[in-house]
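Q: Can I see a sequence and its folded structure?
A: Here is a first one.
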Amino acid sequence: MSKVMIVTDSTSNIPLPLLNGNPVKTLPLQVIWGSKTYHDGVDMTPAEFYRHLPKDPIHPSTSQVTPEEFRATYSQLIEEGYDVLSIHISGKLSGTLDSAYQARKTMPGAQIVIVDSLSTSMALGFQVMAAARMAETGATLEECRVVAEKGRNHTGVFFTVSTLEYLRRGGRIGSASAFLGNVLDLKPVLEVRNGLVEPVERVRTLNKAIDRIIDLVEQRVDQSTGPIRLAAIQAAAPEEGQALLDKALKRFSSQLVTDAVVAEVSPVLGTHTGPGALGLAYMVGM
C-alpha cells in the first residue's frame, strides 16, 4: 500500500511544533517587491517583512506557486512511493490551486488528489493537519481526501485588520469594500467565507473586535461534539495574538481543546492584511 504525503502551501501558517514530523510538504508562494522576488517565509522572515512593509513606498505583490514547482514536488514524492493529497488556499484568493491542477494534468496516472480548502491561514492549516494525522495512521489516499473535505466543513477563521488598505491594494477585499471610506476608528470584523473575504460587522475598538471574534467562533463551535482546535493568528503582533488565544480559551472547556496555538501570518498573507492583523481560526469535531 502506498504512503500518503500531504502537500500544502505557505499560506497555511502551520506552526512548526504542530507539524511535529507529520507527513506534510509545504510549498512557498512568492512576494514580489520591486525588482526582487522572495519565497514566502524562506528568503525573507515575517519579522523582516513587517519591519519594512509600512515604510517602503513600493507595495509588494504576491504570486502563486508555479505549475513547474508543483510538478517537481509531485514527481519527487511519487518517485519516493507516495500518493499525494494537495490541499491549498482558496482558489478564489490565489492562482495556486490552478497551478496544482495544471501540474497534475501533465502527470496522467499519478495518484494525486487536489482539494480546495476554501480558506487560508490556520483554517487551511487545520484541514491539512487532519489529513496528515490520518495519513500517519496508514490511511489510503481516498480516506485522507474524505477527512480533508470533512475538515473543510468544520473549520473557519474570523479576523480584524488595522486598516483595509492592504486588502484593497491586493484586490482581496471582496464585498468588504463596503467598509471602505468610513470612520477611521471603526474596526472591521471579517471572515473567510466560501473562499472569499467577507464583512461581518464594524465595531469601535480593537478590544471590541477581539471580543466579537471570540463570540463568533463560540457561536460556530458546538462544544458538545469536540474536540476543539484553536489558533490565534497574528501579523507582527505576537503579544496580542497570545492574549487573544488566552482570552478565547476561557470560553471553551479545557477538556475539549486539543490544540491551542499562536500562528504567525506569513509575508504573502501579510501583504494583504498588513501588520497588526489578528484573528482566530478553529476546527471542531475532528
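Q: Show me another, different protein.
A: A second, unrelated one:
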Amino acid sequence: MARKFLYIVAFCIVVYMAGRLALTLFPEQITRAALVPGGRFEPQPPVAGNAYAADSLWISRPGMAGGDPARFLPQGAAQNANPLPAAVFFVHPTSYLERKHWNGPVDDRDAARIAAMMVRGMASAFNGSPDLWVPRYRQATLGAFLTDAPEARQALDLAYGDVARAFDRFVASTPADQPIVLAGHSQGAYHLRRLIKEKVAGTPLARRVVAVYAIGWPVSLEHDLPAMAMPACQTATQTRCVLSWLSYAEPANPAMTLSAYERSSGLDGKSLKGSAFICSNPLTGSLGGTAPAAVNLGTLVPDEKAHSAALKPGMVPARCGADGLLYIGPAPDLGPYVFPGNNFHVYDIPLFWANLRADVTRRVAAWKP
C-alpha cells in the first residue's frame, strides 16, 4: 500500500512538473487554449439609459449600505483625517474567467466574488474620497485579450458600452464644479482610455480631471495620449495628466505582454508596433526613473485567504526599464496569482498601495479649477 501511495505521489509530481514546463515553454499557446471561448459572440442590447440608477449595478457608490468592498482599509492604514473633495470613478479589472461566454453576466457569482476581492485590494487605495464609484459591467472574458478574433472586439465593445453608460450616471450625479479622478486596472484601464477620448477630451469635463490612473494596460505615448488630450504625468504634483505602469519581478519574461501590445491598435487606429508607452514610477509619482524600496510607504500583503491584509513598508523598489515596464526586483511573496514570466499584473496596485493613496491625495490638493 505504501509503495502504491508513493507511485501516486511520484505521478502527481511528474504531472505538475510537466505542466510547469509546458507553461514555461508555450505560455501563450496554453493560456489561449484554456481561456479563449470557442463559441460565437452573443449579441446583447445596450443597457437602458437609466439602468445605472439601480444600486445593483454598482459594486461601490456613495451611500451604499454595508458590505462595500471599496471601503476596505488594511492593517496599518488610517482613514484620511480630511476626506478628499474629488469624486472617483474606478473601472475594475477582468474577473470573469470562463470560456462559456465572450461577456460575463453581471450576476455571475464567481465573477462578482473575484471582482469584490479586486476592488477591496485596488479601488480601496482611492477611498480617501467618500464619492467613490465602481460599476458592474458585462466585462469581456479574459480570453478576449488573447485572440484577434472578431468576437473579441465585439465583446470589448459591449463591455465598453456599459462602462460608458455608468460614467454618464457618475457625471450626472456629481456637482459640475467637483474635481474628478478617473482610474482603472487592466481591462478597466483599457476601457478608461477610450472613455476619455470619447467623453472627456475637448469637453468641460477635462478641466475637472485631477489625474487619470490607467494602470495595468500600456498607454502609448504616440497613439493614445494625443487622442486622450492629456500628457503623461511628469511630476508628483502635476494634474490633468495620465499615470500608467505594468509590474514585473526579475528575472522577467515580458514576451507575452509585449507581443499582445504590438498586435493591438492605439486610440488613433494605428499599429502600436514600436511605439513607446508610459512608465510612471508609483513610488515617486514621476515619469520613469528608479526609486529604492525604502520609499515604499506600504505594500498590501494579503493573508492566506485574501480576507484581510496588512501594509508592509519598504518591501519592493520600482525601476522603469528601457522597454517601458516597471521592475520591482526579486519576486516578493504576495500570493499565488503571479502570471508567467514573473508578471505581477494582479498586484500592480497592491505593490504600491500606500504610495498610490498618497499620490491621489497630493494631486487632489494641487488641482485648481
